[in-house]
Amino acid sequence: MLAALDLTTLTVTLTLVTLSMTLLLALAAWHAGTEQGLRHWALGNCALMLGLLLNVNQQHLHHSLSVVLANGLMTLGLGVIWLGVRAFKGRSQPQWGPICAAAVIMLLLWFFRFQVDRLDIRYAVSSVTLGGLCLMCARELLIRAAQPLRTAYWFSGSIALLYGFCLVARPLAVLFGWQSDLPVLDSPLQNLTLLGAMLAQIGMASGFILMTHYRTAEALHRLSERDALTNTLNRRSLQEQAHVLLNLMAQRGQPVTLIMVDADHFKRINDEFGHQTGDAVLCHLVARIGQHLRSDDLLGRFGGEEFTLILPGLDTERAAQVAERIRQGLCSNPWESESKPVWLSVSLGVACSEHHGYDFNTLLSAADAALYRAKALGRNRVELAPAPGADLEDQMALRLLSQFRHNLDV
Ligand SMILES: Nc1nc2c(ncn2[C@@H]2O[C@H](COP(=O)(O)OP(=O)(O)OP(=O)(O)O)[C@@H](O)[C@H]2O)c(=O)[nH]1
Question: Whose CA is nearest to atom 12 of ligand 1?
Fold first, then answer.
């Protein structure tokens, strides 16, 4: 059946397939923004397509073009695609690698065509080089990665592995006699190679676009749940994740503590040092808080200079110790700005599920009330949320005192 396939039809189809995949990659690269790799893949595919076109026209073109230059272009194309895979993964890209590989291949093919005419060696050299480059792409892609990117990596990687293996096996097939003669144009093996190239072309280009799509989806998801300045959870995703965590802790019957952290007199920092320094101080504040958190604790930005922490498994006493360490850590070391050190202190309100249950909003209001009290009592301190039923008048008085001090800015 393979022998019955017509070479011209195969060539035209392969060229059209490669052309449309190149266009697809180029269009995707056009809008890829900072996403690395797509441009390499589009460019590599162009070189690959030109090389293929020259190579299948051996009967009409001089061999310096259809053999030497064609294989050089195909090597360069696959090499650039390999660079694209590395760029996508954020790895170094040795630009000279593909150029040198292409130059060496062209030199070898020129020698074994015009100095010593050895078709078997030319065949082995080009098959092993192109196959080897596909295997190098596969090696970069078939790695452990977080889902969903792993699916896309493995999709492209498996195709590269399969096609690379087939290319490397081509000269072996001749060597071990599975293929009676060296493949001349129109031989079944040559037709099979062209069909394989077509499938590899469609598969790898789709795989690369899938990789970019998953990467973009991941970035969008991250953006939708993180605060752009501090990279902490934003209010909405903090609430969502807190609900899940609180339900889990309630089922297990373990305590959870919610802490509200608010920077003291932050307006003064902005006024004295400017907003940019204010932003840097907020990032410093988050980094400092992060030093005291475990991997399953949640940290979110609730408002301007107000952050919320949720500490699963900690009762009031242990959570108060964490809060105190955060307070001390911040007020004992200034943030070094370019001009002079910026001293920062925080007030913290602590509310635990032991007294306030597992409802997020109830915990939040209890911690907020405690934070108010910390502010009213002079700032730079940790206050525990009073148990429900504590003196309401007392709380009202504190709220008024806090508002009074805030208005006086003391
Ligand atoms: N630089 C910077 N400032 C912010 C940001 N978000 C809020 N702020 C500022 O934080 C300040 C908060 O001021 P206030 O609510 O009066 O609180 P405060 O000055 O910290 O006083 P107390 O909380 O009472 O100690 C305001 O000046 C806001 O402009 C931000 O993302 N970056």
Answer: 267
